[in-house]
């Protein structure tokens, strides 16, 4: 495809946020340090390979991809995803209700909702109504368990969201004690956000699987204890196994992590980084 040099519009705009300014500067530095795919355009229109400095080969696409998918500190770039951003979305009741309808329809139909969420604590609720009742005129135990699991699950999702690497999370165990009949709305609270954050930090740092059991308490509006749950979560840093490879004009194979499903917006941005797409060398 030929470049359009006559009918084109180029837009320039300032970047004021210091975090994004530093990210752009780091990406430009990576582009300029490429000595694997980059070439020097000679006066006779020839493309000459850039010689590696001290036998160190640097691939700009590989370096950017490595940073984007789980290695944010390698090139000094900041991870702009924070747990606070996630919990702000959870506290948007309409938006989170739509999320439940799409991802957890059984919980949405039962009336399970997030009442309040922060980095340290999360409270969910489940009503007593026709859709959540049992034959004994109280809330069905499975609906209580859904609300209890969600109070700890939201905390886990928030800290996984902010982690600098992809982390898998899975419930591996649950114990419940039912103390009173739930004949009205029941509120479940988990206050162990700090422990969850530390467990995720440990698996990111070591790559080892971490099992953590957290406690969740369910109470009625008048503070009567309805149920207690102990929920065991397993966290493990995801090791990139799927890779793409392509060969440069100099016969050097390049492999880079490729997970567009993790951060689609980052993937779209990388597709348009100069030098990332295929290039023909004469």
Present the secondary structure layout.
Blueprint: H1 18-32, E1 39-41, E2 47-49, H2 60-68, H3 83-90, H4 93-103, H5 105-110, E3 113-117, E4 122-126, H6 141-162, E5 167-178, E6 186-190, H7 193-206, E7 210-220, E8 225-237, E9 243-247, E10 253-257, H8 264-271
Antiparallel strand pairs: 1-2, 3-4, 4-6, 5-8, 6-7, 7-8, 9-10
Classification by helices and strands: alpha+beta
Rg, Cα atoms, Å: 25 Å
Task: Please give the count of helices.
Answer: 8
Number of separate strands: 10
Residue runs with pLDDT of under 50 for 5 or more positions: 64-78, 241-282
Amino- and carboxy-terminal Cα gap: 16 Å
Summarize the helix and strand pattern as letters: HEEHHHHEEHEEHEEEEH
Strand order of the largest sheet: 3-4-6-7-8-5
What percentage of residues falls in helices of 4 or more residues?
25-40%
Largest sheet: 6 strands, antiparallel
The general outline is elongated
Question: What average pLDDT do the residues reach?
Answer: 77
Work out the strand percent.
Answer: 15-25%
């Amino acid at each position: 495809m030929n470049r359009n040099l006559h009918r084109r519009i180029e837009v320039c705009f300032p970047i004021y946020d210091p975090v994004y300014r530093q990210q752009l500067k780091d990406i430009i530095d990576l582009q300029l340090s490429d000595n694997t795919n980059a070439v020097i355009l000679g006066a006779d229109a020839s493309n000459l390979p850039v010689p590696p400095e001290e036998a160190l080969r640097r691939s700009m696409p590989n370096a950017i991809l490595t940073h984007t998918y789980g290695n944010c500190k390698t090139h000094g770039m900041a991870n702009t995803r924070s747990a606070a951003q996630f919990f702000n979305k959870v506290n948007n009741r309409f938006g989170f209700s739509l999320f439940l309808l799409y991802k957890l329809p059984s919980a949405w139909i039962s009336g399970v909702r997030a009442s309040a969420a922060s980095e340290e604590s999360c409270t969910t609720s489940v009503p007593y109504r026709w859709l959540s009742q049992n034959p004994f005129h109280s809330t069905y135990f499975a609906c209580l368990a859904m609300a209890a699991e969600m109070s700890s699950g939201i905390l886990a999702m928030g800290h996984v969201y902010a982690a600098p690497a992809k982390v898998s999370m899975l419930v591996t165990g649950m114990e419940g004690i039912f103390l009173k009949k739930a004949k009205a709305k029941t509120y479940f609270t988990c206050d162990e956000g700090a422990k969850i954050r530390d467990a995720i930090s440990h698996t990111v740092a070591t790559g080892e699987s971490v099992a953590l059991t957290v406690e969740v308490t369910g109470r009625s509006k008048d503070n009567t204890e309805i149920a207690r749950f102990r929920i065991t979560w397993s966290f493990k840093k995801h090791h990139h196994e799927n890779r793409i490879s392509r060969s440069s004009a100099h016969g050097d194979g390049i492999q880079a992590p490729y997970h567009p499903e993790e951060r689609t917006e980052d993937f779209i941005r990388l597709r348009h980084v100069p030098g990332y797409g295929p290039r023909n060398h004469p």
